[in-house]
Design goal:
By secondary structure, the protein is an alpha/beta fold. A five-stranded mixed beta sheet has the order 1-2-3-4-5, covered by helices on one side. Strands 8-7-6-11-12 form a five-stranded parallel beta sheet, sandwiched between helices. Strands 16-13-18-19-20 form a five-stranded mixed beta sheet, covered by helices on one side.
Length: about 400
């Protein structure tokens, strides 16, 4: 029987070229641990990511378009040489082998709010049947009563998840494969790691919409969506004058706020530091060529704060009174006295969930526009802040 895979057919006919890959791949688990593809399988890229570093989309070139492979690499911090291969078969397939996932998916459980955001951007939020931390998700679609709370990492409600009968459970990794993942697999539930939060390039995070497009049968739409976001992001970045390509003359920016007298500063290659740089700012916490946050003493941070022209994302404060209540010394800072403090919590849930870390992941262009408007208001006077707001 010949299986017609519409994704491969569309991609091959339109935009991508393939180069055959070889090697053993796994079916839903770490490479080499859960079986491999048969000897006749030859995989070729059907989408080449431009910014994301932790996923690949591959197609089976020798088996009548039966399978597509979503490969996820190193899906948690500190992972090395860890590969998860998810073999997808169209829902027209007569049979499904162990470890394979039918697509387009019709139902899903999302363990992160960004998973909801990706599906929503594709017009597929209705497939969400369960979610973790609903009170912290900004998307109104999960608050209609139709989406069930499934608990958290160490306290998942397996009974509810099983009852929902999801086609897939989207999960993120922290520090290694959690025992909950093994339990979900034992219950016969397909689990797919999503590693968007580990991408430091804002466009790399947004590009994870492509795997979601694959799984929902909207790959073409996902690619077009990402292309539009990329074009807008790049156009905004070009508004920063070439003379501002170095730190000289750029407004100096401080990030975050102290926690128990320790200030955690993002590394130079981190998501937020990159956004500051691309918005035309000079990040005061630079100095480490990595993406890890490092603790600095409050005294050292205090010295840096004296230089700050802008202070962004200062914890949970909604206004200057709250900020000063956290630490009375803030009141004496020039950046506070002059009202140049902006927080990215303009859109939050009653429990404190931030849409900046939700829909902002699929709209890096809107995030960048906010930051340019703050740091260089003359370059984007028409833009109204969306995720950020000035503390008053």
């Amino acid at each position: 029987m010949k299986f017609d895979n519409p994704i491969l057919r569309t991609i091959r006919a339109s935009i991508l070229s393939c180069a055959v890959l070889s090697g053993v791949v796994s079916c839903g688990g770490p490479s080499g641990e859960r079986g491999g593809a048969d000897d006749t399988t030859a995989w070729a890229p059907i989408y080449r990511s431009r910014y994301a570093e932790r996923f690949e989309l591959l197609g089976d070139t020798l088996n009548d378009d039966r399978s597509t492979l979503l490969r996820v690499r190193n899906p948690w911090q500190g992972a090395e040489n860890t590969v998860y291969d998810y073999r997808l078969v169209p829902d027209t397939a007569a049979t499904v082998r162990e470890g394979e996932i039918r697509y387009p998916i019709r139902s899903a459980v999302c363990m992160s709010s960004t998973h909801v955001a990706f599906l929503d951007a594709l017009g597929e939020v209705s497939v969400v049947r369960g979610a973790s931390g609903i009170d912290f998700i900004a998307n109104p679609a999960v608050h209609t009563g139709a989406v069930k709370e499934v608990g958290y990492d160490t306290n998942l409600d397996f009974e509810t998840i099983v009852a929902l009968r999801p086609d897939v459970v989207f999960i993120y990794g922290v520090g290694g494969e959690h025992t909950a993942v093994t339990k979900l697999r034992q219950l016969g539930l397909p689990v797919v790691y999503i590693a968007d939060y580990l991408e430091n390039d804002p466009l790399g995070r947004a590009e994870w919409i492509v795997p979601f497009g694959l799984l929902t049968g909207k790959l073409n739409e996902a690619i077009l969506y990402f292309n539009r976001i990329e074009a807008r992001y790049r156009e905004l970045a070009t508004r920063i004058p070439a003379s501002d390509s170095s730190a000289v003359g750029r407004p100096k920016v401080m990030l975050n706020a102290p926690y128990r007298d320790v200030w955690y500063l993002p590394g130079d290659r981190s998501y937020m530091a990159r956004l500051v740089r691309e918005a035309g700012g000079d990040y005061l916490g630079r100095g480490t060529d990595n993406d890890a946050s490092r603790p600095v003493s409050a005294e050292h941070a205090w010295v840096l704060m004296q230089e700050a022209d802008y202070w962004l994302a200062p914890g949970m404060a909604q206004n200057l009174a709250q900020l000063k209540a956290d630490n009375h010394r803030f009141a004496g800072l020039p950046v506070v006295r002059e009202g140049r403090v902006f927080n990215n919590n303009a859109r939050i849930t009653p429990k404190g969930g931030s849409d900046f870390w939700e829909s902002g992941v699929v709209r890096p262009d809107r995030v960048l526009a906010d930051m340019i408007r703050i740091l260089h208001p003359e370059l984007l006077p028409e833009h109204e802040l969306y995720y950020f707001h000035r503390l008053k």
